[in-house]
Every structure is written in C-alpha cells, then in structure tokens.
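Q: Could you fold this chain for me?
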Amino acid sequence: MAIEIKYPQPQPKQELFFSARERYVCYGGARGGGKSWCVRHKAVLMAARYAGIRMLILRRTLVELRENHIRPMRAMLKGVADYRATDKTFEFPNGSLIVFGYCDGESDVDQYQGQEYDVIFMDEATHFTEYQYATLTACLRGANDFPKRMYLTCNPGGPGHAWVKRLFIDRDFREGERPEDYVFIPAKVTDNRVLMEKDPEYVRRLDNLPRGLREAWRDGKWDVFVGQFFTEWDRDRHVVEAFQPPSWWRWYVTMDYGLDMLAALLIGVDEKGDAYVVGEVYEGRDLGDGHDGLIVSEAAKAVIELAGERVITAYLAPPDLWNARQETGRSVADIFAEHGVYLTRTSNDRVDGWMAVKEWLKPRICEDGAERPRLRFFPNCRNIIRTLPLLQYDERRPNDVSNSPHELTHAPDALRGFCVYRTIKGNEPAAQTRVKLIDRLEPKSKRRRTRT
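A: Sure. Below is the predicted structure, expressed as structure tokens.
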C-alpha cells in the first residue's frame, strides 16, 4: 500500500540531513535550526520508503518525548499510521514501525540491550551519556537490506558534550571508529528561514542570554557552553605555535597516576614566570578496549622519556601516591623512586587547585601592553587541550569540577597539581657567566680568539 504524506519543502541544511548516507549523521549546533522537525520527517520518509523498517526515536525524558515528537506526529500521521499509546509506537500499513523511547537515568538504556533497530534517532544527543550512546549503537543491526543509521541532533553543552564533540567536531577517532562513518551538518537559527519569518525576535532573545548559553545556543560554539567550569579558556589565546624552548627554563613534570590513567604533563617556566605545557603522556584503561593501563615501572619509564634530557626541578604528584600498601609496606611513590623518578608531593585541595588553574588561565596585561595568559599550551598536548575546556561544574559543589565523565578529569588533575605548587622562574644565564663557563670547560686550543 502506497503512503503519501505532504509536508513543507525542507530548507538547505535540512536537505543535507535528509540526503546524508553516512552511518552516523549529526545535525545542529545552535538553537532554532529545525532539528526536531528533521527527526520527525526523516523518520516518516524512511517508514514510507522501506516497508517493514524498524526505527527508534529517543529523548532524555518522557515529557520532552511527548511534547517534541509524539503529539506533533499524531497530528501529522492522522489517518496514515496507527498510534499505540501502550507501547508508544506508530505502525504503518506497510509494516514499518516508529518506536518512541526515553532514557532519564543512566541505566534506563539497558532496556534496549538485545533489541534490534534499523535506524535510531537521538534527539538532543548531548543530553545522553557516552555509555548510553555506546549501548544504543549495539542495537543498530538486523538481517535485512534496510540502511543501518543513527541520526543525532544536538546543541553544545550537557553530559554528552564531550563524546559528541570528539566524534563530530574534533573528529578524534579511536580504534574501531571509521572517519568515513561520521558527518556533522552545522545549522544555526539563521538557517531556519521559517522561524526567522514567524518569530524574528528569537535571535534577539538569544543575543540577551548570559555568556556560555549565548555562544552555545546562538553561535553553536563547542568550546563555550553552559555549565563550563573554565570559562577563561580561549583556544586562540591558550594554544600557541610550538617553538624550541631554551634548556635553562625551569622544568616540571606533573602527573595524575592510576591504572585507569597516567596523565603526565611536561611544563617549562620562563624568566617571567610564564608556563608552557610542551609535552604529555596520556595512557590508561579509561581510553577503552586495547588499553590496559601502565604499572608503576612502565609509568616511570614513560615519565622519564617525557622529560628527555631536561633537568627536572620537581616531579609533582598528589598525596595519595604516598599511601603505603598494606601487603608490602611500600607506596607508589616508593616504587617510582626505585625506577628513578623521585616524586614531590603537591596539594590535593580541589577547590584551591581549580582556583589556581583559573588564575593561570586568566589573561593579564603584559610589559609590552599585550593581554596574555600566564599558562599556554603547545598543540601536541592534545589531551589536556581537549579535556580542560570540557570540564563542568559539580552540581553539589559549585566550586569544584564534576568527576563525570571521569576520563576528562585526569589531565586537568595533573595540571591542577602544578598550578597550586610554588613554581620557580627560569633563570637565563648572563652572557658573562656563559663565557666563564666556556673558559672553564673548553681546552685553550679550542677557544675562540675574540669574545664578547
């Protein structure tokens, strides 16, 4: 039986969403881009095109699901498909199904394990955790010729901000994730001509939002979002082009260690007291399959390789590494020392530490009149650059960082240990001192005849 439904012509960005053929299609970025409209109409189009296809439309809460999809689709599909309220399903005459679901809590997604869907729509995907997303991807299967796709819509911010940004914005793929499977279609309110015509004041309301909400909802910026802890972060200011630092800088290695992750940062401090994060180690179980974590001897080796030939003023580590193990009487710090890395205890006060990080990140007026932060990063330190701006406030402790998602906290914890420590400025050797040093070390036959 043929199904005929008339609906308005999609706008250009919506057409890109409809025509995308990648396995994972993400649409949105800013408010007012017509995301939910796309979800509803794409699902209906596929139900009409593929007889017998099974699709799932998800929102985080039942209220959102009912208001954004079930009610408008009941009006849209009246006389076309039968809605069963008991299991929240539309059944089409050709056997196609659109099932509605929600995952209010982390474990709610477990109800979908073992189920099969040809297409899954995650509306407002950044409201879902990475565990929920990963569980749902396993449901994307079926012994048929229907396309197997997941369509996601989203705005910046929320508990899923990090994994959505990693996959679709940064395109930082892990083992088993194929870049050709992922596409992001950005859409802003200005792309929605219908909304602009019917409610031209909407953009003005977005302009009046507080910082964080404004940049995320109006501009679709992924480095600034509501709930962000380090609002001081500005990639253009904090990430600098790599250069060769002088050896006389004061050098520090600061770390957060466990089998879940070794996050170690190599930081140099110049003669003005400014710091540069120039290298990192980032390895552990939290990276997923294929990563077993480093035992202490392996971690010590990685830290020594990170330091290279530099003279390290201090290897900074949190106090818990000095806790003696009951069975051996030795601590992790003791084992590091046995492998040539002598740790220095730094403060583990979280609130004071995060405030110190904020002070280091905050721009200030320099001697040359330019405005620069005291702490900057080389581009190769991609994990601290990735995780630091993604940290969010703890809902119960507003002066602390949320520990969820946990993978995001390791490199910032290492950085916190450095920022709260009393570091020493680099001391550039005077020209005269360098000459005397050369006179002492070089044989007379190799000295230059003239010196300045």
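A (continued): Confidence is low (pLDDT under 50) at residues 431-452.
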